[in-house]
Amino acid sequence: MSLHRLQVALGERSYPILVGPGLVQGTPELAELAAGRQVAIVTNERVNGLYGGPLRGALSGASACITVMLDEGEQHKDWASLNRVFDALLGAQFDRRCLIVALGGGVVGDTAGFAAATYQRGVDFVQVPTTLLAQVDSSVGGKTAINHPRGKNMIGAFHQPRLVLADTDTLASLPPRELSAGIAEMLKHGAIADPAYLDALEDDMARLRAGDPAALAAAVLRSCEIKAQVVGADERESGLRAILNFGHTFGHAIEAGAGYGQWLHGEAVGTGMVMAADLSHRLGLVDAAVPARLKASVAAAGLPTQGPNWAAERYVELMSVDKKASQGIPKFVLLRALGQAVVRTAPAELVHQTLRACSAAH
Ligand code: NAD
Ligand code: GLY
After folding, report:
1. Cα(147) to centroid(ligand 1), Å
2. What is the pLDDT of residues 216-234, one digit of tens each?
3. Ligand 1: does its nearest atom lie under 6 Å from the Cβ of 38?
């Protein structure tokens, strides 16, 4: 399998995404960024055990290299983990020329990225995503954040990485549930931007779920292309970028309401997309075939298609904290066709109908 290189085009903040095998063992781009600098690898015990050794080998040109270990899981994307990074950086006397390298899934990437955005008013960082979800989505685009008990990703900053190394070999150690979670974000990219990609994902579903390296690498590449294009057009989400939140208004409510870590982010996005497609149909934007197809794709990916058994009012209260909400009124990313998304509010009665239709029976 070969190495592919994409560029996120953001003027002076542009950076490459490398997709391919063997990248945790090092690349010239990483060696150049690390040369002579203090480097902190932020990771967790599991990922460090798998890939920390080779990555440290790739950073031999650093003037110092420390490893900061975070606790595993969405419930640890919080102030305590962020502070652990700051404590380690300050304890090792890291200065503002230091480099942070995030090695892990989206939890590590978002937390380490936010630490990089704020340590001494901002330092460079590199993303080395090791989950499918992080390779196809969270490592690209510069959204960094921690959660607040009342809402997902509520405390954060835009801070672009200098380099993304998506080593597709690392996907071999992912459990099936985590592969499915990553497929949710891939289906999202197809649904909002590229119906032919959605077709290909549906055709390849068995190979993707089985961890077939070629199928996964092709999908990582296509998802990164789509994400890089959207981010390049609207870095700070003043408009277009909001489409990347398809399924997230409902999904974030499920994650926060169930308790972080109960539903994987990708699982909540999968069910959230089913809900958003259902609402699109109730608004007359698409015919019934669109939600039916998306529900079938989400189910085929091994993801849940029904939300928790909560009253609609509970969902609506949780959704009022979403970042797209305006003065507590939630907005939804909806489909007006496969491959075309729109952002808008919806009448409360239709939202309630969707929630009743798409959550487990009361
Ligand atoms: P995660 O970071 O919790 O990782 C999932 C699990 O896989 C963890 O237990 C982790 O230790 C383990 N793991 C990581 N790499 C592994 C490997 N190669 N082999 C075996 N196990 C491995 O979850 P995630 O799905 O990667 O990320 C979810 C997070 O990403 C959420 O917090 C979500 O909000 C965020 N996110 C951010 C953006 C963004 O634009 N910043 C986009 C999408 C999602
Ligand atoms: N995952 C949403 C975004 O990157 O904008």
Report:
1. 14
2. 999 999 999 999 999 999 9
3. no
